[in-house]
């Protein structure tokens, strides 16, 4: 924030920064709230299995040369 102040950010830039901060804060809160609700109702094992399969596919893809 001090660097932006020293760089003489104009009022429009400060407004954009404030709106971005508000939107990011609200969306982070909603995402964490939704994740907690899902974890209260369901197990995390489907997510664990999904990540395991995705990780294995990525390792195979790197081994085979699908990714540069």
Description:
The chain is mainly alpha-helical and 68 residues long. The protein is built from three helices and no strands. The mean pLDDT is 93.
Quantity of strands, as a count: 0
* Main beta sheet: none
Number of domains: 1
Radius of gyration: 21 Å
**Assembly annotation:** single chain
| Overall SS class | mainly alpha
Q: Helical residue percent? A: over 70%
The tally of helices reads: 3
**In angstroms, what separates the terminal alpha carbons?**
39 Å
Short description:
The protein is an all-alpha fold and 68 residues long. It has helices spanning 2-6, 11-41, 45-64. Helices cover 82% and strands 0% of the residues.
Highlighted features:
68 residues, 3 helices, 82% helix
List the helices and strands and how they pair.
Blueprint: H1 2-6, H2 11-41, H3 45-64
């Amino acid at each position: 924030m001090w660097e932006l102040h020293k760089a003489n950010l104009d009022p429009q830039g400060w407004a954009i920064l404030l709106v971005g901060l508000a939107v990011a804060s609200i969306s982070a809160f909603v995402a964490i709230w939704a994740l907690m609700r899902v974890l209260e109702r369901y197990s995390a094992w489907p997510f664990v299995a999904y990540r395991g399969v995705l990780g294995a596919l990525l390792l195979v893809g790197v081994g085979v040369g699908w990714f540069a």
